[in-house]
Each structure stands twice: as C-alpha cells, then as structure tokens.
Amino acid sequence: MTTLRLSVDRERCVGAGMCALTAPEVFDQDDDEGLVVLLEAEPSPADRTAAKMAAGVCPSGAITVNDPDSSAT
C-alpha cells in the first residue's frame, strides 16, 4: 500500500466544516476564521476512507488527495 497524501488550500476554503465533521482525525477548523486545518497529511490506513470522503464533500474543493493506489494502470 502506497502513501496517501493530502494538502489543503486555505485560500480556497469557505469554512463549511464538512471536512472536520467527516474526518475529525484528519481535519479541523481554526478558531479565528473557521478555515481548514490539516492534522494528518499522511492519514493512517484507518483514516484514509474518511479523508477521501471529506475531500469529496468539500464545497470549495480546498482539499487535494494524492492517492497513487487509485491511478489507472
């Protein structure tokens, strides 16, 4: 299993909080602006599915998932 890597674009974030609700072990929101905070850039195998779901529900597309396992061969 290869490493799943996440990144966030705080400039693009609108503070909806869907990421923190979907994957609280991986994402949080800061207290000042309510913007995304990445807690785990390389989520554990147990948190991978939730992290991918969080990226999918982000209304602004501020979360990027680099998952070499999902690349077409």
TrEMBL record:
<keyword id="KW-0813">Transport</keyword>
<keyword id="KW-0249">Electron transport</keyword>
<protein>
    <recommendedName>
        <fullName>Ferredoxin</fullName>
    </recommendedName>
</protein>
<keyword id="KW-0408">Iron</keyword>
<feature type="domain" description="4Fe-4S ferredoxin-type">
    <location>
        <begin position="4"/>
        <end position="32"/>
    </location>
</feature>
<comment type="function">
    <text>Ferredoxins are iron-sulfur proteins that transfer electrons in a wide variety of metabolic reactions.</text>
</comment>
<dbReference type="Pfam" id="PF13370">
    <property type="entry name" value="Fer4_13"/>
</dbReference>
<keyword id="KW-0479">Metal-binding</keyword>
<dbReference type="InterPro" id="IPR051269">
    <property type="entry name" value="Fe-S_cluster_ET"/>
</dbReference>
<keyword id="KW-0411">Iron-sulfur</keyword>
<dbReference type="InterPro" id="IPR017896">
    <property type="entry name" value="4Fe4S_Fe-S-bd"/>
</dbReference>
<keyword id="KW-0003">3Fe-4S</keyword>
<dbReference type="InterPro" id="IPR001080">
    <property type="entry name" value="3Fe4S_ferredoxin"/>
</dbReference>
